[in-house]
Amino acid sequence: MVSIDHVAHKILTYFPYVLVLIDIRFQGGKCGKDGSVDNHMEMGKKLLAAGQLADALSHFHAAVDIDPQNYMAYYRRATVFLAMGKSKSALPDLSRVIELKPDFTSARLQRGNLLLKQGKLDEAESDFKKVLKSNPSDKEEKEAQSQLTKSDEIQRLVAQSRRSFDDKDYVTAAAQLDTVIETCIWDVTSREMRAECFIQMGEMGKAISDLKAASKLKNDNTQAFYKLSTIYYNLGDHEMSLSEVRECLKLDPDHKQCYSHYKQVKKLNKQIQAAEEYIQEQRYEDAVSKYEAVITTEPNVQHFLLLAKERICHALTQAQQASRAISVCSEVLKSNPANVNVLKDRAEAYLQDEQYEEGKPDICSCIKVLQDRGWVTFCLLAGLTWEQ
Fold this sequence. Notes:
The protein is mostly helical.
């Protein structure tokens, strides 16, 4: 039997050697790490210069992982992020650089520029002022002073635009925000305010453009998706409305406004799709019934009301129900006299009912509208000619 004293003696005998090995291993590991960081930094710089951004980024990722205190690794990685158009990722790296090396003016100046583009004017001005106080190069001093002046001007315009908006002077507010957004291209607040101006001005296309940008600039911007969905809905685009409200619910399944709107749009979308399938299958009475259900579901949005009646007009014409078709088609044409689809269908219904004289003006109107658009053959292809 081996005694405990003997085992203890053996351990104590080898212990100094163990300590030496641990010390050597520790020092060797540290040297290896330093060499590895240098290697990654050098490779990253070469790849960045060659425009191989993804590969360069991998090396700077590795450098940061190995040495989290290496401010230059963060700075190089931020440079790659900026070259890739990923400013959101660059900003935390620049902040880390400044935390590790507060006198690194290039990093602070770059961060100030990013903050200015985001519309974070107070934070941007703070960076520009610190650059000016930190013994910058002539180039850095000139840029910081220029950006500080620009930021002051933007501050003034933002205040003016808010006053104009509060006064319901949406045209002036939008013009002022145009200038703000030229500089603060990633400013979510300014884009959302300008979108609201465009909505009030009835310029829905421009509102959609700003809201789409706002939805991308802010990760959890459920309100932007909700507004986009309601705009598309009021424009009669049920498919886009459904798509945008689904994006809202992906971010927040419990969003009350989005969920309520989703149920409405989904129901309407389903009814319209079913009605169109019935028309394709030549089940015209079923199509008429389904479009009448669309009117019941949404009686207040003019686009859907006109769409439903236009398609009912078409279905009744195809079903050879001339009298009913003429009545519905005429109702649509009171609101939209240049609707070529309805002109064609009503003309065809008149011909079915042997009311040839009544049908001729519709054929003329149809051809005139399409001549203006360069689509004369549309009516002619339908078999509706003056001779008929």
